[in-house]
Amino acid sequence: MKFEKPFFIICFVCIMQTITIIYLTSGISTLEASIDSSKPVQEISFQEPIKHNQQVSNKNLSTNQNKADLDKNYFSLQANNNEQLREIMRQELSRFFPEKNKKSNTQSQASLASNSEHLNIVNEKMALFRSTGSLNNRDMEDFYLHISRLAPQDRTQALRILSQEINSGNLKLSN
Amino acid sequence: MYIKKALISAAIALTSSFALAGQSNDVPVEIDLEGFSALGNMKTARFSDNDNEFIGCGTRTFAFGDGTSFNFGFCQAGIEEGASINCGTEDLSLISQINAISDYSFITFRWDDLGNCTYVGSSTQSFYIPGKKDK
Q1: Region for residue B104 given its phi and psi (left: phi exceeds 0; alpha: psi -120 to 50; beta: otherwise)
Q2: CB contact under 8 A, A155 and B60
Q3: Residue-number span of the structural domain to which A71 is assigned
């Protein structure tokens, strides 16, 4: 007889828990019903280039034919990501430096456009070198000139790609 | 009379060649693709019978007029036709080392799989300077 009271209390708690679970489960199913599955979920903008990059990477791993595309995509995607990051940083900085904002915005936009332009030139020149399979001193100096006008991280990358192409035998140095 | 002249000429010729004597080291260009290293001296490469043999380094500086500049250096070497090795660097200490290379120096450099120079060495000594026989 002593154990009857706690037993009933335990039973009561169990019943209450069951009721609560049933209530919550019905809430979830109501929530699920409210989601229109026909509408696609909007992706975060950063995922788009990453996804695209992965597709390009997978495609190019199997063949060397499209190596130029990979590098071109690398540069363009890097430029896109950099542009987005710079825009975010500009917005954040403008809160602290509202007076300088207008001037620096114009300057940075101009330098971005310039960098993008030179990236395209560098990519085009590299594609041309690959197609001819060689480059002479004049080509090299011209290439260096365009590399010098890139953003620092892009300069480094461009120099690396040039070295890698020469070392792999894709580009031959000629007089 | 003719024999006397010939002997004198031979003596002069021998004396002059002795005066040019001195230790001379030839170091042909070697490229180790597995060890990512190359070495050789410019004299040997330049006067080699192999027309494809070369080794050297260079630097470039672009000044933008606003107080900033872009400096980089590179080293390259080759032995076979159409096959050469190249590395680049923006490291100021390596660029400084490249600038220390002078005429007829012995050169050695290393690189990584990304094409970055990781080591540059040079040595400028009398035995690397070409003698008459090299020309």
Answers
A1: left
A2: no
A3: 64-173
C-alpha span between B27 and B125 (Å, rounded)? 13
pLDDT of A32-91, one tens digit each?
444 444 444 343 333 444 444 445 444 444 444 445 455 555 555 566 677 777 777 777
**CB-nearest partner of B72 from A159, A167, A173:** A159
Q: Is B84 exposed, middle or buried (0-12, 13-18, 19+ CB in 10 A)?
A: buried
* Residue-range definition of the domain harbouring residue B59: 23-134
Instruction: List CB contacts (< 8 A) between B57 and chain A.
Output: none
A113 three-class SS: helix
Determine the distance in angstroms separating the CA of A75 from the nearest CA of chain B, rounded to an integer: 16
Has residue A5 been placed in a domain? no
Query: Is position B78 within any domain?
Result: yes
List chain B residues with CB under 8 Å of A172.
Answer: 82-84
> Has residue B13 been placed in a domain?
no
Distance from the B117 Cα atom to the nearest Cα atom in chain A, whole angstroms: 10
Specify if A4 maps to a domain. Answer: no
pTM for the full predicted model: 0.59
**Stretch B3-16: mean pLDDT:** 59
**Domain tally, chain A:** 1
The yes/no answer to whether this complex scores an ipTM above 0.90 is no
Residues of A in contact with B86 (CB under 8 A): 162-163, 166-167, 173
